[in-house]
Write a structure and sequence with these properties.
Blueprint: E1 6-10, H1 14-25, E2 35-40, H2 61-64, H3 68-71, E3 78-81, E4 84-88, E5 93-96, E6 100-103, E7 106-109, E8 113-114, H4 123-126, E9 127-129, H5 133-148, E10 154-159, H6 163-176, E11 180-185, H7 197-209, E12 213-215, E13 218-223, E14 227-232, E15 235-240, E16 243-246, E17 251-252, H8 254-257, E18 269-270, E19 283-285, E20 290-291, H9 304-322, E21 337-340, E22 346-350, E23 353-356, H10 357-371, H11 375-395
Parallel strand pairs: 1-2, 1-7, 2-3, 7-19, 9-16, 10-11, 10-16, 11-12, 18-20
Antiparallel strand pairs: 4-5, 5-6, 8-17, 13-14, 14-15, 21-22, 22-23
Amino acid sequence: MSEKSRICIVGGGFGGLYTALRLSEFPWQNGAKPEITLIDKSDRFLFSPLLYELITEEMQSWEIAPPFAEILANTGVMFQQGSVTDIDIEAKKVTVDGDITIDYDKLVLATGGKTPVDIVPGAKEYALPFRSLNDAFRLQEELRLLEEANHDKIRVAVVGGGYSGVELACKLAARLGEKGRIRIIERGEQILKDSPDFNRETAIEALEKNHIWQDLETEVAQLEAQSISLEYKGQTDVIPVDLVLWTVGNQISELVTKLPLEQNEKGLLKIEPNLLVKGRDDVYAIGDVADCYDAEGNPVPATAQVAFQQSDYCAWNLWASATNRPLLSFRYQPLGEMMTLGVDNATISGLGIKLDGSMAYIARRLIYLYRLPTLKHQLTVGLNWITQPLVELLSS
Protein backbone atom coordinates (compact mmCIF):
# COMPACT_ATOMS: atom_id res chain seq x y z
CA MET A 1 0.00 0.00 0.00
CA SER A 2 1.11 3.56 -0.62
CA GLU A 3 1.16 6.27 1.99
CA LYS A 4 -2.26 7.46 0.83
CA SER A 5 -3.85 4.02 0.81
CA ARG A 6 -7.50 3.86 1.79
CA ILE A 7 -9.52 1.13 3.49
CA CYS A 8 -13.29 1.35 3.30
CA ILE A 9 -15.43 -0.79 5.60
CA VAL A 10 -19.12 -1.06 4.70
CA GLY A 11 -21.21 -2.01 7.71
CA GLY A 12 -20.71 -1.11 11.37
CA GLY A 13 -21.79 -4.34 13.05
CA PHE A 14 -19.50 -6.68 14.94
CA GLY A 15 -17.44 -7.55 11.86
CA GLY A 16 -17.05 -4.03 10.49
CA LEU A 17 -16.58 -2.04 13.70
CA TYR A 18 -14.14 -4.43 15.35
CA THR A 19 -12.12 -4.67 12.12
CA ALA A 20 -11.79 -0.88 12.15
CA LEU A 21 -10.85 -0.77 15.84
CA ARG A 22 -8.26 -3.51 15.42
CA LEU A 23 -6.76 -1.81 12.36
CA SER A 24 -6.32 1.40 14.33
CA GLU A 25 -4.21 -0.47 16.90
CA PHE A 26 -1.61 -2.00 14.56
CA PRO A 27 1.94 -0.58 14.47
CA TRP A 28 1.87 1.09 11.07
CA GLN A 29 5.21 2.40 9.85
CA ASN A 30 5.81 6.16 9.80
CA GLY A 31 3.27 7.80 7.56
CA ALA A 32 2.01 4.46 6.26
CA LYS A 33 -1.21 4.26 8.28
CA PRO A 34 -4.06 4.15 5.76
CA GLU A 35 -7.17 6.27 5.76
CA ILE A 36 -9.80 4.03 7.35
CA THR A 37 -13.46 4.86 6.71
CA LEU A 38 -16.34 3.05 8.37
CA ILE A 39 -19.80 3.44 6.81
CA ASP A 40 -23.10 2.61 8.48
CA LYS A 41 -26.67 3.83 8.01
CA SER A 42 -27.09 4.24 11.77
CA ASP A 43 -25.23 6.65 14.00
CA ARG A 44 -24.90 3.94 16.66
CA PHE A 45 -23.27 0.54 16.99
CA LEU A 46 -25.66 -2.13 18.24
CA PHE A 47 -24.41 -4.77 20.67
CA SER A 48 -27.13 -7.10 19.42
CA PRO A 49 -26.83 -9.98 21.97
CA LEU A 50 -28.09 -7.56 24.64
CA LEU A 51 -30.99 -6.21 22.58
CA TYR A 52 -33.40 -8.50 24.46
CA GLU A 53 -32.69 -6.65 27.71
CA LEU A 54 -34.54 -3.62 26.37
CA ILE A 55 -37.83 -5.55 26.47
CA THR A 56 -37.64 -5.95 30.24
CA GLU A 57 -35.87 -2.61 30.76
CA GLU A 58 -32.97 -4.37 32.47
CA MET A 59 -30.73 -2.21 30.29
CA GLN A 60 -31.04 1.13 28.56
CA SER A 61 -30.43 1.83 24.89
CA TRP A 62 -27.29 3.92 25.54
CA GLU A 63 -25.66 0.90 27.20
CA ILE A 64 -26.08 -1.44 24.25
CA ALA A 65 -25.94 1.14 21.42
CA PRO A 66 -23.15 3.70 21.90
CA PRO A 67 -22.62 6.30 19.12
CA PHE A 68 -19.94 5.49 16.54
CA ALA A 69 -18.49 8.97 17.07
CA GLU A 70 -17.88 8.11 20.72
CA ILE A 71 -16.42 4.67 20.01
CA LEU A 72 -14.10 5.87 17.24
CA ALA A 73 -12.86 9.01 19.03
CA ASN A 74 -9.04 9.14 19.08
CA THR A 75 -8.70 6.06 16.82
CA GLY A 76 -8.10 7.90 13.56
CA VAL A 77 -10.99 5.99 11.95
CA MET A 78 -13.37 8.24 10.00
CA PHE A 79 -17.07 7.53 10.29
CA GLN A 80 -19.54 8.21 7.49
CA GLN A 81 -23.21 7.84 8.34
CA GLY A 82 -25.52 7.01 5.47
CA SER A 83 -26.87 4.26 3.24
CA VAL A 84 -24.55 2.82 0.63
CA THR A 85 -26.38 3.15 -2.68
CA ASP A 86 -23.71 1.79 -5.03
CA ILE A 87 -20.39 -0.02 -5.03
CA ASP A 88 -18.25 0.10 -8.17
CA ILE A 89 -15.83 -2.77 -7.74
CA GLU A 90 -13.73 -1.97 -10.80
CA ALA A 91 -13.47 1.78 -10.18
CA LYS A 92 -13.05 1.11 -6.43
CA LYS A 93 -15.68 3.61 -5.38
CA VAL A 94 -18.45 3.46 -2.79
CA THR A 95 -21.39 5.84 -3.10
CA VAL A 96 -23.30 6.91 0.01
CA ASP A 97 -26.81 8.43 -0.13
CA GLY A 98 -26.49 8.83 -3.89
CA ASP A 99 -24.04 11.73 -3.87
CA ILE A 100 -21.12 11.07 -1.50
CA THR A 101 -18.26 9.15 -3.13
CA ILE A 102 -15.56 7.34 -1.15
CA ASP A 103 -12.55 5.94 -3.01
CA TYR A 104 -10.75 2.91 -1.64
CA ASP A 105 -7.82 0.61 -2.25
CA LYS A 106 -9.14 -2.18 0.00
CA LEU A 107 -12.80 -2.86 0.68
CA VAL A 108 -14.40 -4.81 3.55
CA LEU A 109 -18.00 -5.91 3.04
CA ALA A 110 -19.62 -6.41 6.45
CA THR A 111 -23.16 -5.33 5.64
CA GLY A 112 -24.87 -8.10 7.59
CA GLY A 113 -28.33 -9.31 6.67
CA LYS A 114 -31.94 -8.58 7.43
CA THR A 115 -34.88 -10.68 8.54
CA PRO A 116 -37.18 -11.33 5.58
CA VAL A 117 -40.82 -10.73 6.53
CA ASP A 118 -42.35 -11.09 3.07
CA ILE A 119 -42.23 -14.88 2.84
CA VAL A 120 -45.77 -15.48 4.08
CA PRO A 121 -48.93 -13.56 3.08
CA GLY A 122 -49.59 -10.81 5.61
CA ALA A 123 -46.22 -11.08 7.37
CA LYS A 124 -44.87 -7.85 5.87
CA GLU A 125 -47.90 -5.95 7.13
CA TYR A 126 -48.39 -7.55 10.54
CA ALA A 127 -45.16 -9.21 11.74
CA LEU A 128 -42.35 -7.43 13.58
CA PRO A 129 -38.70 -8.44 13.07
CA PHE A 130 -36.33 -8.14 16.02
CA ARG A 131 -32.87 -7.32 14.75
CA SER A 132 -32.25 -3.60 15.11
CA LEU A 133 -32.59 -0.87 17.71
CA ASN A 134 -35.60 0.48 15.82
CA ASP A 135 -37.18 -2.99 15.92
CA ALA A 136 -36.76 -2.99 19.72
CA PHE A 137 -38.27 0.50 20.04
CA ARG A 138 -41.21 -0.52 17.87
CA LEU A 139 -41.79 -3.63 19.98
CA GLN A 140 -41.62 -1.59 23.18
CA GLU A 141 -44.28 0.76 21.84
CA GLU A 142 -46.54 -2.10 20.74
CA LEU A 143 -46.22 -3.71 24.17
CA ARG A 144 -46.94 -0.40 25.89
CA LEU A 145 -50.14 0.06 23.87
CA LEU A 146 -51.28 -3.49 24.60
CA GLU A 147 -50.54 -3.11 28.31
CA GLU A 148 -52.38 0.21 28.51
CA ALA A 149 -55.40 -1.32 26.78
CA ASN A 150 -55.69 -3.48 29.90
CA HIS A 151 -56.69 -6.69 28.15
CA ASP A 152 -57.19 -9.79 30.27
CA LYS A 153 -54.49 -11.48 28.21
CA ILE A 154 -51.91 -10.43 25.63
CA ARG A 155 -51.41 -13.07 22.95
CA VAL A 156 -47.98 -13.18 21.32
CA ALA A 157 -46.68 -15.52 18.62
CA VAL A 158 -42.92 -15.81 18.11
CA VAL A 159 -42.04 -17.36 14.74
CA GLY A 160 -38.81 -19.34 14.96
CA GLY A 161 -37.48 -21.67 17.64
CA GLY A 162 -33.82 -20.71 17.38
CA TYR A 163 -31.86 -18.66 19.91
CA SER A 164 -33.52 -15.38 19.02
CA GLY A 165 -37.03 -16.82 19.24
CA VAL A 166 -36.45 -18.53 22.59
CA GLU A 167 -34.74 -15.50 24.15
CA LEU A 168 -37.51 -13.19 22.91
CA ALA A 169 -40.25 -15.46 24.25
CA CYS A 170 -38.66 -15.70 27.69
CA LYS A 171 -38.12 -11.94 27.98
CA LEU A 172 -41.72 -11.31 26.91
CA ALA A 173 -42.95 -13.80 29.51
CA ALA A 174 -40.92 -11.98 32.17
CA ARG A 175 -42.41 -8.64 31.15
CA LEU A 176 -46.03 -9.66 30.63
CA GLY A 177 -46.30 -12.06 33.56
CA GLU A 178 -49.67 -13.75 34.00
CA LYS A 179 -51.21 -11.65 31.22
CA GLY A 180 -48.92 -13.14 28.62
CA ARG A 181 -50.08 -15.94 26.35
CA ILE A 182 -46.95 -16.72 24.37
CA ARG A 183 -46.28 -19.41 21.80
CA ILE A 184 -43.20 -20.31 19.76
CA ILE A 185 -43.85 -21.57 16.24
CA GLU A 186 -41.11 -23.85 14.90
CA ARG A 187 -41.22 -25.79 11.62
CA GLY A 188 -38.74 -28.38 12.88
CA GLU A 189 -39.22 -31.23 15.33
CA GLN A 190 -37.56 -29.37 18.20
CA ILE A 191 -36.42 -25.92 19.24
CA LEU A 192 -32.71 -25.01 19.18
CA LYS A 193 -31.94 -27.96 16.91
CA ASP A 194 -28.27 -26.99 16.41
CA SER A 195 -27.60 -26.15 20.05
CA PRO A 196 -25.89 -28.20 22.77
CA ASP A 197 -28.23 -30.58 24.60
CA PHE A 198 -27.67 -28.75 27.89
CA ASN A 199 -28.79 -25.42 26.43
CA ARG A 200 -31.80 -26.97 24.73
CA GLU A 201 -32.94 -28.88 27.82
CA THR A 202 -32.48 -25.82 30.05
CA ALA A 203 -34.41 -23.68 27.57
CA ILE A 204 -37.29 -26.17 27.40
CA GLU A 205 -37.52 -26.09 31.20
CA ALA A 206 -37.65 -22.29 31.12
CA LEU A 207 -40.36 -22.30 28.45
CA GLU A 208 -42.46 -24.76 30.41
CA LYS A 209 -41.98 -22.83 33.65
CA ASN A 210 -43.17 -19.65 31.90
CA HIS A 211 -46.12 -21.47 30.27
CA ILE A 212 -44.82 -20.74 26.77
CA TRP A 213 -46.48 -23.03 24.26
CA GLN A 214 -44.35 -24.77 21.62
CA ASP A 215 -45.95 -25.37 18.21
CA LEU A 216 -43.45 -27.81 16.67
CA GLU A 217 -43.53 -29.11 13.08
CA THR A 218 -45.76 -26.14 12.36
CA GLU A 219 -45.70 -23.66 9.45
CA VAL A 220 -47.17 -20.18 9.29
CA ALA A 221 -49.62 -20.04 6.38
CA GLN A 222 -50.95 -16.49 6.69
CA LEU A 223 -51.18 -13.46 8.96
CA GLU A 224 -54.11 -11.14 9.49
CA ALA A 225 -54.40 -8.09 11.74
CA GLN A 226 -55.63 -10.14 14.71
CA SER A 227 -54.94 -13.75 13.74
CA ILE A 228 -52.33 -16.21 12.55
CA SER A 229 -53.01 -19.30 10.41
CA LEU A 230 -50.89 -22.32 11.34
CA GLU A 231 -50.43 -25.53 9.38
CA TYR A 232 -49.69 -28.74 11.29
CA LYS A 233 -49.58 -32.06 9.43
CA GLY A 234 -52.02 -30.95 6.77
CA GLN A 235 -54.44 -29.24 9.15
CA THR A 236 -54.83 -25.46 9.34
CA ASP A 237 -55.83 -23.66 12.52
CA VAL A 238 -56.58 -19.94 12.79
CA ILE A 239 -55.52 -18.57 16.17
CA PRO A 240 -56.24 -15.08 17.56
CA VAL A 241 -53.09 -13.05 18.23
CA ASP A 242 -52.21 -9.52 19.34
CA LEU A 243 -48.56 -9.49 18.29
CA VAL A 244 -46.39 -11.57 15.94
CA LEU A 245 -42.59 -11.48 16.11
CA TRP A 246 -40.59 -12.88 13.19
CA THR A 247 -37.10 -14.24 13.91
CA VAL A 248 -36.40 -16.65 11.02
CA GLY A 249 -34.38 -16.18 7.87
CA ASN A 250 -31.44 -14.09 6.76
CA GLN A 251 -31.64 -11.99 3.62
CA ILE A 252 -28.60 -10.43 1.97
CA SER A 253 -29.10 -6.89 0.68
CA GLU A 254 -29.53 -6.31 -3.02
CA LEU A 255 -26.51 -4.01 -2.85
CA VAL A 256 -24.33 -7.09 -2.29
CA THR A 257 -26.17 -9.63 -4.44
CA LYS A 258 -25.91 -7.42 -7.55
CA LEU A 259 -22.13 -7.06 -7.25
CA PRO A 260 -20.04 -8.86 -9.92
CA LEU A 261 -18.60 -11.21 -7.30
CA GLU A 262 -18.86 -14.98 -6.87
CA GLN A 263 -21.89 -15.99 -4.80
CA ASN A 264 -23.51 -19.19 -3.62
CA GLU A 265 -27.16 -20.11 -4.17
CA LYS A 266 -28.19 -18.00 -1.16
CA GLY A 267 -26.42 -14.89 -2.39
CA LEU A 268 -23.55 -15.20 0.11
CA LEU A 269 -20.17 -14.12 -1.20
CA LYS A 270 -17.74 -16.97 -1.83
CA ILE A 271 -14.48 -16.33 -0.01
CA GLU A 272 -11.00 -17.76 0.30
CA PRO A 273 -9.82 -19.05 3.69
CA ASN A 274 -8.11 -15.67 4.24
CA LEU A 275 -11.54 -13.94 3.92
CA LEU A 276 -10.78 -12.39 0.53
CA VAL A 277 -13.65 -12.69 -1.93
CA LYS A 278 -12.78 -15.30 -4.55
CA GLY A 279 -11.07 -13.80 -7.56
CA ARG A 280 -10.22 -10.53 -5.77
CA ASP A 281 -7.19 -9.30 -3.86
CA ASP A 282 -8.85 -6.07 -2.73
CA VAL A 283 -12.27 -7.12 -1.35
CA TYR A 284 -12.89 -8.92 1.95
CA ALA A 285 -16.24 -10.29 3.11
CA ILE A 286 -17.09 -11.10 6.72
CA GLY A 287 -20.13 -11.72 8.88
CA ASP A 288 -23.55 -12.62 7.50
CA VAL A 289 -22.62 -11.87 3.86
CA ALA A 290 -19.75 -14.38 3.70
CA ASP A 291 -20.00 -18.03 2.68
CA CYS A 292 -17.56 -19.15 5.37
CA TYR A 293 -16.57 -22.62 6.62
CA ASP A 294 -14.66 -24.02 9.57
CA ALA A 295 -11.59 -26.28 9.38
CA GLU A 296 -13.81 -29.36 8.96
CA GLY A 297 -15.68 -27.86 6.03
CA ASN A 298 -18.87 -27.05 7.93
CA PRO A 299 -20.56 -23.67 7.41
CA VAL A 300 -20.01 -21.37 10.37
CA PRO A 301 -23.13 -19.88 11.98
CA ALA A 302 -24.22 -16.31 11.28
CA THR A 303 -23.56 -15.07 14.80
CA ALA A 304 -21.90 -12.12 16.49
CA GLN A 305 -19.24 -14.50 17.83
CA VAL A 306 -18.19 -15.51 14.31
CA ALA A 307 -18.12 -11.91 13.03
CA PHE A 308 -16.11 -10.88 16.09
CA GLN A 309 -13.49 -13.57 15.40
CA GLN A 310 -13.41 -12.79 11.67
CA SER A 311 -12.69 -9.14 12.41
CA ASP A 312 -9.34 -10.06 13.99
CA TYR A 313 -8.28 -12.07 10.94
CA CYS A 314 -9.59 -9.47 8.49
CA ALA A 315 -7.73 -6.65 10.24
CA TRP A 316 -4.54 -8.71 10.43
CA ASN A 317 -4.69 -9.59 6.73
CA LEU A 318 -5.27 -5.97 5.73
CA TRP A 319 -2.26 -4.96 7.79
CA ALA A 320 -0.20 -7.95 6.58
CA SER A 321 -0.86 -7.15 2.92
CA ALA A 322 0.38 -3.60 3.56
CA THR A 323 3.53 -4.70 5.40
CA ASN A 324 4.53 -7.69 3.24
CA ARG A 325 3.57 -10.30 5.80
CA PRO A 326 1.76 -13.58 5.11
CA LEU A 327 -2.03 -13.59 5.26
CA LEU A 328 -3.72 -15.90 7.75
CA SER A 329 -6.50 -18.37 7.07
CA PHE A 330 -9.56 -17.89 9.28
CA ARG A 331 -9.93 -20.54 11.97
CA TYR A 332 -13.23 -20.45 13.80
CA GLN A 333 -13.04 -21.44 17.46
CA PRO A 334 -16.42 -22.23 19.05
CA LEU A 335 -16.21 -20.56 22.45
CA GLY A 336 -19.57 -21.81 23.67
CA GLU A 337 -23.10 -20.52 23.50
CA MET A 338 -24.99 -18.26 25.86
CA MET A 339 -28.68 -17.53 26.05
CA THR A 340 -30.86 -15.38 28.27
CA LEU A 341 -34.00 -17.10 29.54
CA GLY A 342 -35.84 -14.22 31.15
CA VAL A 343 -34.81 -12.10 34.12
CA ASP A 344 -32.09 -13.52 36.37
CA ASN A 345 -31.93 -16.70 34.30
CA ALA A 346 -29.61 -17.79 31.49
CA THR A 347 -27.66 -20.76 30.23
CA ILE A 348 -24.02 -21.11 29.17
CA SER A 349 -22.47 -24.13 27.52
CA GLY A 350 -18.98 -24.49 26.09
CA LEU A 351 -15.27 -24.97 26.81
CA GLY A 352 -16.20 -27.61 29.38
CA ILE A 353 -18.49 -25.26 31.28
CA LYS A 354 -22.20 -25.75 31.88
CA LEU A 355 -24.05 -23.08 33.84
CA ASP A 356 -27.66 -22.09 34.22
CA GLY A 357 -29.83 -19.95 36.47
CA SER A 358 -28.68 -16.75 38.16
CA MET A 359 -24.97 -17.65 38.01
CA ALA A 360 -25.17 -18.03 34.24
CA TYR A 361 -27.13 -14.78 34.05
CA ILE A 362 -24.34 -12.89 35.87
CA ALA A 363 -21.57 -14.62 33.92
CA ARG A 364 -23.25 -13.81 30.59
CA ARG A 365 -23.52 -10.16 31.57
CA LEU A 366 -19.85 -9.98 32.58
CA ILE A 367 -18.67 -11.72 29.40
CA TYR A 368 -20.64 -9.31 27.24
CA LEU A 369 -19.41 -6.37 29.31
CA TYR A 370 -15.86 -7.44 28.44
CA ARG A 371 -16.83 -7.61 24.75
CA LEU A 372 -18.17 -4.05 24.58
CA PRO A 373 -16.11 -2.11 22.02
CA THR A 374 -14.07 0.29 24.18
CA LEU A 375 -12.66 0.34 27.70
CA LYS A 376 -14.39 3.65 28.37
CA HIS A 377 -17.78 2.21 27.49
CA GLN A 378 -17.08 -0.94 29.50
CA LEU A 379 -16.30 1.15 32.58
CA THR A 380 -19.34 3.42 32.12
CA VAL A 381 -21.75 0.50 31.70
CA GLY A 382 -20.12 -1.54 34.48
CA LEU A 383 -20.34 1.39 36.91
CA ASN A 384 -24.00 1.85 36.02
CA TRP A 385 -24.70 -1.83 36.72
CA ILE A 386 -23.06 -1.52 40.13
CA THR A 387 -24.75 1.71 41.17
CA GLN A 388 -28.21 1.12 39.71
CA PRO A 389 -29.42 -1.15 42.55
CA LEU A 390 -28.28 1.48 45.07
CA VAL A 391 -30.11 4.24 43.20
CA GLU A 392 -33.29 2.17 43.09
CA LEU A 393 -32.99 1.36 46.78
CA LEU A 394 -32.54 5.03 47.75
CA SER A 395 -35.43 6.18 45.56
CA SER A 396 -37.86 3.54 46.86
